[in-house]
Amino acid sequence: MEQNISETAIRCLRRLEEYDFAGVRAMCTDGATVWQNDGKAEQAIDERLEQFKSFVTTLDSLRYDVIRQFQNPNEVLQQQVLHLAMADGSRSELHAAVYFRFDGGLIDRIEEYVYTVPAGTPG
């Protein structure tokens, strides 16, 4: 049965929600890279996951909502919102357009264009 890469992209987000970083890593190629519009250089997936591990220590929970998704062979583009509940009780949302490139059914590249919207503000 052929793998549905759109579903794989969503499974990746669900594993992040569960803090299953080993599960996310297993979904990626050895040389997978991540780029985000934060002004920093492209990163290896392992480096990015380490940063995410540190980030989640400040959270009570996180949840991804995928608003829409488009698929081409070996590519998924989606609009999503990351809902964050911080340990201090505050909440925020990160709106993003995320591109996933696949190689052999595994995630090989992620590009994320993010902007923050305070909770309760129309996106």
Description of the structure:
The protein has 123 residues and is an alpha+beta fold. It has a single domain (5-118), classed as Nuclear Transport Factor 2, Chain: A, CATH 3.10.450. It contains three helices and six strands. The longest helix has 13 residues, at 5-17. The mean pLDDT is 91.
Quickly list its features:
Nuclear Transport Factor 2, Chain: A, globular, single chain, 3 helices, alpha+beta, six-stranded mixed sheet, 6 strands, 123 residues
Layout of secondary structure:
Blueprint: H1 5-17, H2 21-26, E1 28-36, E2 43-44, H3 45-56, E3 59-72, E4 75-86, E5 91-103, E6 106-118
Parallel strand pairs: 1-6
Antiparallel strand pairs: 1-2, 3-4, 4-5, 5-6
Distance between the termini: 38 Å
Biggest sheet, spatial arrangement of strands: 2-1-6-5-4-3
CATH-defined fold name: Nuclear Transport Factor 2, Chain: A
For the largest beta-sheet, the strand count, sense and barrel status come to: 6 strands, mixed
Number of domains: 1
CATH class identity: Alpha Beta
Q: Short summary of the structure?
A:
With 123 residues, the protein is of the alpha+beta class. It is 25% helix and 51% strand.
